[in-house]
Specification:
This protein has 264 residues and is of the alpha/beta class. The chain has 8 helices and 9 strands. Strands 1, 2, 3, 4, 5, 6, 7, 8 and 9 form a 9-stranded mixed beta sheet that branches.
């Protein structure tokens, strides 16, 4: 006597209608389950980080400094990295990372874990950001915040490093974005524009402006990656991968190809 075995393969024919219906449902449910498992596996292999920085750190073609660095770091771990950009909603990016909507932050200052307790800082430094003053007028030394007092100063709303430190001076103008910032400088409505070094150089070049970067930097800040606590086990691995790329020359090559060309 032949024994019939239950299978997710749809019956070929000759079975009663009820059996055909149940078999079709089993096929559909089995396929849905398989797709769900595949999607979950693919999601587990991708890390989504966010940032608010623009060119030359990021680009739509994924050729910026952070684009390439994150891809290389997570490639070392057999993972894919995706970078989301929140150029005018940096607080939303940090909230999404803290809530686990995104997997973490690509490049932020140290200490965010105090305000966002679900985030863990990767201890290996991603980059050092210089917050500098730009001018199209006479050059002067920015050897302290008080050096800005005699000038009309502008910076982008929400940049805490400037909000906390720029002194009361001749005049202060707040703007929404880098286009407005360098537009004020170009029109002579601001003497000094405050911004990050590499993004400012890229933006001024794109706008065809001949600007001067005043030295020394007003602030030099080490920047770090953060991961949501659900990825706590990855933190030491990411730190080790980043350190490896610095040691084997990959980090310097990415820097030379993406940021260094903007140096004056």
């Amino acid at each position: 006597m032949q024994t019939q075995r239950a299978s997710l393969t749809c019956p070929a024919g000759g079975a009663i209608a009820a059996l055909r219906f149940l078999a079709r449902r089993a096929c559909a449910l089995g396929g849905a389950l398989l797709l769900s498992l595949v999607s979950a596996a693919q999601a587990a292999d991708k890390i989504v980080l966010s940032s608010g920085v623009l060119a030359p750190y990021t680009s739509p073609e994924r050729t910026g400094f952070l684009d390439q660095l994150l891809a290389a770091v997570f490639r070392e771990l057999g993972l894919e990295a995706e970078l989301l950009i929140y150029p005018t909603a940096t607080e939303r990016g940090m909230l999404n990372a803290n809530e686990g909507v995104d997997d973490g932050l690509a490049m932020r200052v140290a200490g965010l874990e105090k305000q966002y307790p679900n985030l863990i800082r990767v201890p290996e430094e991603v980059a050092t950001n210089d917050f500098v003053a730009y001018t199209m007028g006479p050059r002067f030394a920015t050897d302290g915040w008080d050096s800005l007092k005699p000038y009309v100063v502008s910076y982008i709303i929400g940049w805490k490093v400037f909000e906390y430190n720029v002194p009361q001076g001749k005049e202060l103008t707040l703007v929404r974005d880098a286009d407005q910032l360098f537009g004020l400088l170009a029109s002579g409505r601001a003497d000094v524009a405050l911004y990050e070094r590499w993004q400012g150089l890229a933006k001024s070049r794109a706008m065809g402006l001949r600007v001067q970067v005043l030295e020394p930097p007003l602030v030099r800040t080490r920047m770090y990656m953060y991961l949501h606590k659900k990825h706590a086990a990855l933190v030491p691995q990411v730190a080790a991968a980043l350190a490896k790329l610095k040691k084997d020359g990959t980090y310097q090559r990415i820097f030379d190809n993406t940021l260094k060309p903007y140096a004056q």
